[in-house]
Specification:
Blueprint (H helix, E strand, L loop, with lengths): L1 E4 L7 E4 L2 E5 L4 E12 L2 E11 L4 E12 L2 E11 L4 E11 L4 E10 L4 E10 L8 E11 L2 E12 L2 E13 L6 E2 L3 E5 L3 E13 L2 E10 L3 E13 L2 E11 L10 H5 L12 E12 L5 E9 L4 H4 L7 H12 L10 E11 L3 E12 L22 E14 L6 E12 L5 E12 L2 E3 L3 E18 L12 E15 L1 E7 L5 E16 L11 E3 L5 E3 L10 E20 L7 E19 H5 L15 E10 L2 E10 L4 E12 L5 E9 L15 E11 L4 E10 L4 E12 L3 E9 L5 E9 L6 E2 L1
Antiparallel strand pairs: 1-2, 2-4, 3-4, 4-5, 5-6, 6-7, 7-8, 8-9, 9-10, 10-11, 11-12, 12-13, 13-45, 14-16, 15-16, 15-44, 16-17, 17-18, 18-19, 19-20, 20-21, 21-22, 22-23, 23-24, 24-25, 25-26, 26-28, 27-28, 28-29, 29-31, 30-31, 31-34, 32-33, 34-35, 35-36, 36-37, 37-38, 38-39, 39-40, 40-41, ...
Amino acid sequence: MEQLFEENPDAPWHITADTISYDDPSRRYVADGSVRISRGGVRLTADHVRFDHRTMDATASGHVVLVSGKDVLIGDSVEINLQDQVGTVTQGTVFLEENHFYIRGEKIEKLGENTYAAERATLSSCDGQAPAWKITGRKLDVTLEGYGVIRHAALWARDVPVLYTPIFVFPAKRQRQTGLLPPEVGTASRKGTFITQPFYWAINEQSDLTVYETYMSDRGNKIGLEYRYKVDPLTEGTAMFDYLNDRKVDDGIGDNSDDWGYTDDNFLRPDDDRYWFRMKHDQDLPLGFTGRIDLDIVSDQDYLTEFRSGMTGFDKTRAYFRDTYGRDLDDYDDPIRTNQAIATRHWDRFSLNSGIVWLDDTTERWTDQFAATQTLPKLDTQLQRLPIIRFDAMRQPLGDTPLLFNMDTEWTYFYSDDNTRAARIDLQPRVTWPFRLGHALYIEPSAGLRQTAWFVTDFQDIPTEETKDDNTYRTLYDLKLDVSSEFSNVFAIGESGSEAVRHTVLPRVIYEYIPNKDQDDYPAFIGQDQNGNLVPLDDSVNRVDPLNKITYSITNSFTSKSFARSDKDTEETTETARYNDFLRVKLEQSYDIREARGSDRIDPERKRPFSPIRAELEYYPAKYLRLKADAEYDVYDSRLVSRNISATLNSARGDEFRLEYRYDKGLYHFNQKDDTDEDIESLYGSIRLKLPFRFTVYGTNEYDFEENERIETTVGLIYEAQCWSFDARYEKDDDGDEEISFMFNLYGLGPIGLY
């Protein structure tokens, strides 16, 4: 039987049941058997219902189910106003779909469309009557898209109580929320036992702050801050800061250097105040400009090596900056950190970049105490760019001629505290004439003119020479000829000939020429190395190397074409072409004419104008398999001076296996008189494999064949249950430091807050 109630002005209510009768004294309808009352997204089902269609009050019993939007309330009996969605259910369960929460209680009150209260409550995101984890409490209050509060709360693992707190606050919304994040616990050879507990603060819609408290039994407490903000689509940033008052210092006393220092440098780290500040910022500026700031300030040369891992470590910070801002950090073992502030403006054919670049040498902070032992005084010779301005003209037509024009311009002011004050302007216009010769050859000759001027106020080339002239000018030209062609053919494959492979051959020859010019009278900025010796700290502008070289290469590429057919739910068959670049092979070599003439050789008999032959291979034999290889072959010594081979296998479910072999002949250069024996040869492997019973194993390992030792090892195991996960991880780096860490996460709760 079905009945429609239209007295409500908003929308009619539908009621169906096996029997429906009207109780005149109470002025209520009585429905029995498979009762269903519904309107829009609200639905009430039960065995028995008494319903007042004027007030929308309903009393239901027997297998009661109330559906409100995506949320479901189940209980033995319920009294509720369907219009206001306010009522009470006994021995009930509420399922919040967005968070996958189950709330159970002896008595559950629905205080509004999105608000609930429960007595003798249980909270869990696990399905079933025996959840893997649950939180119980005397009373629970929760508002969807807000927070929930449980008083006298206890965390249970199965039937075992684990934690008690007087008040437990949890998020009941999909948006960002304030609270504690899952902690990381572990032990490490340099840290001792450690635990990192992050606290997340959702300040507002545009910003948030995460505070990391890390306790290390051997080193003390390390505080970390991560502040993120987004003002508009073009203005956003992240600033991070770590501070540690270290219990262990590398001060050269006793065994402190052996225990807490590193052998790859001779610099001590005597201060226990250690820190790392890093920041990336993008800024929308007036007049179409955009700006960016990159800061990387670290207390000492060892900090990033010691704290590579962990929530605030170098590895995770670098990955976050790469993914979010597309900009990198200097390597963790680089003692010189790059800081810069840049403003950029792009036009259709031009671009302008201006800013400052400040290089921070971490080793300089601890070298003053050794000045007395050095033959020369310790100087701050780090060259800063304050500022640097670049104006570039993209390749564009030169008037109505067939010529193309582009230009690179740079003005830089160099500054160091103890050595250099100098400005330099470098102008490089270039003209290109691309044309075709018949249908086979594409020819692109070009010529460039480089003009450089130095304006020096304080500069000394080497300690024994006098200061150079204040103003110095240089003019250089260069020539380039690029000749290439392209041949291709299509081969039909398959029984029907519906699939095809295109084979493309690209031969290319490039000739480059820069004349030899005496540049001894031009500035060559110097600095001081770690041993106190003055050495050139030059770039490619102050000294332009002569060039007279031919480079020739040939590239073979293969592209397959296939069709995906579909006729589902249609009378016509549709075909979609799919292209796959599955194979690329490239061979390249150069011939140095200057080397052949032997004009610059100490030993003319050791002329080696031919460079090693370089080969590159990329092959995708199957959908989930990728092979890459490259090698360099020395034609004079008949040996490979470098070879790298990698294979990557993955699957649709997320498995991945990678194996890479790396070899390089140290500092070998084919045109040097002597090469070194500092070979690099290693094997790197990584794996991520999903196992039965919801386990995932992952790991990386790199083995150094020259030193016969492991460079770096990582092994981890993840267990992912329906409502929780556990991650155990072991790491050992190239310095022998070991670390074991654990991460436990309860799904559905997201960040957790304890008050």
